[in-house]
Amino acid sequence: MTSFPTSFDRDDLLKCARGELFGPGNAQLPEPPMLMMDRITEVSGDGGEHGKGHIVAEFDIKPDLWFFDCHFPGNPIMPGCLGLDGLWQLTGFNLGWRGWQGRGYALGVGEVKLTGMVRPDRKMLKYYVDFTKAVQTRRLTMGVADGRVEADGEVIYQVKDMKVALSEA
């Protein structure tokens, strides 16, 4: 499918953030502190629960992460929207990994369930994204996926029908 590897370390993710992995004007990850993963352990265009592609990544939780001091003072919790953003980031990364052209942007999500929290004593988040649809036509490049986030093995976030597109504009 592509000539890219199927796993990426932090240095690779930072290259992606600088536009060096998939080329200028194509899918990029954000730079720290908004980069919500430390490594991608698996990526495919035909694997996962639905056979339409998947991606798995990990994020090491450290008590000094930037969001713990401000959300909320005296009761530090990682904002749930950052976990959702991590899932969107990975969905767009998968589209770029496929060799599809354009800059990524989130289109929405059908359903979000937050059933747990990330506090400073957690050790690792694991993201799972399973594509239900990946479309590339003359007019549209888009991925639709379900995802979940686990904190130390406990499912804490689940999403359905997450949508990310690539646009050359």
Please tally the helical runs, counting DSSP H or I stretches of 4 or more residues.
3
Distance between the termini: 25 Å
Q: Percent of residues in helical segments?
A: 10-25%
Structural class comes to alpha+beta
User: Main beta sheet: strand number and arrangement?
Assistant: 7 strands, antiparallel
Order of helices and strands: HEEHHEEEEE
E-strand count:
7
Percentage of β-strand residues: 35-45%
Radius of gyration, Cα only, in angstroms?
A: 15 Å
Q: Ranges with pLDDT <50 over ≥5 residues?
A: none
Q: Report the mean per-residue pLDDT as an integer.
A: 96
Task: Identify the overall geometry.
Answer: globular
Can you put this structure into words, describing what you see?
Its main location: cytoplasm. Its EC number is 4.2.1.59. It is found in: Cytoplasm. This is 3-hydroxyacyl-[acyl-carrier-protein] dehydratase FabA. Homodimer. The protein is α+β, with helices and mostly antiparallel strands and 169 residues long. Strands 1, 2, 3, 4, 5, 6 and 7 form a seven-stranded antiparallel beta sheet that branches. The chain has helices at 10-17, 66-70, 80-97, and strands spanning 39-44, 54-60, 103-108, 111-114, 124-136, 141-151, 154-167. The model has no long low-confidence stretch (mean pLDDT 96). A hairpin with a 4-residue loop joins strand 5 and strand 6.
